[in-house]
Design goal:
CATH class of the largest domain: Alpha Beta
Radius of gyration: 30 Å
Strand order of the largest sheet: 6-5-11-10-9
Helix content: 40-55%
Strand content: 15-25%
Number of helices: 13
Number of domains: 3
Order of helices and strands: HHEEHHEEHEEHEEHHEEEHHHHH
Shape: elongated
Length: 381
Amino acid sequence: MAAKSEKISIDYKALAELLNGSMRMHRDATTLEHWLELFSVLTDSDGTASLRWTHGNPGRCIESYQGAVPAIPPALREQIDTIVAQSGRRAPGFLDDFLELGSATDIRDSIAAVDPRYLLAIVDWNPACIVVVMARAPNRPLWNDADRQRIREILPYVRESVLVHKQMDRNRYISGLARDVLDKSPRGVLILSEDGKIQMANARAAAILAVHDGLSDRDGKLVINNKDVAARLSDYLGKLDTMGDAGLPEMDWNMVVEKPSGAAPYQLILGHLTLSDWNLESRRSDKVAVIHVHDPDKTVGVQPEQLSDFYGFTKAQARLAAKLFQGHTINEAAEALHISVNTARTHMRGIYAKTGVRTQAELLGMLSTGLTSYGESVNNL
């Protein structure tokens, strides 16, 4: 170890470049190999390698190299695998360079005996182990205690960068997973901020907007060719910030948009969502509008029996929910089913109790995402 009185010299400009490189890598604006170049400069290495694998499965290791790093000797690779296995039996956390990885002398000696030009650091191990191997060329001085101490001072920054990268990857994965689920919805789903900006459109909504047949996208905002409907939506968005959990009155949540082509009109089913975290794209409100776009020409329906199986609805409740799923208002559904509106409302209260939703917009959203595997038409109900 370096003497306590010895000052460790760190190139903070190179460290800043490394951290900037990390952020660029998070944005997919640079490569891991370029980041390894910056790491080599910072650690005074002639070459650096990154080994990444799922813990306990080194056979699936992903290796990246930069600079004058000879192929890692098999004996050293075996020792790396051993250290990774041992780290898994330790308390979860980060481990410093290989001198800190194990207390057994034979582990240290066997690594050093392979090739003293190599230096090893484990920056993370769970769930994916990340090992960085640094190497110096044969004509360079071997690593000394001051080198190791300097790298120990640098590693916390690298660890934080790795954690940020993992979190961003995880967020991208979850976001992609949510998008996949929404893209399988049988109706279009649009998310709007209070200024009318489209924050998200699933695959069916994007296809509807691309046709420009009554609904379209201009400069990232939803455009509705029907002026009355556009004005009602604008009024709704203006009240979004103060909207309570009950949502809109019944007569406002379902709006009809005629298609200039003359085809069956769209039905817009409106609702809203309160965000658990502040939405930076919506400056004035923590709520977004959720619009389900029903296109009768591309109806994907369900049978009442399927709704009964999914949610335990009675036959009467299932028939009503199926009609609502088709895009009918509760009045239209009651007329089609030859029941009174009051009876339909009684059925709705039972549906709400069984599903846990509070509004018809929430019910339609739940049915849209929960029954995507069924493609049978219900036009004959």
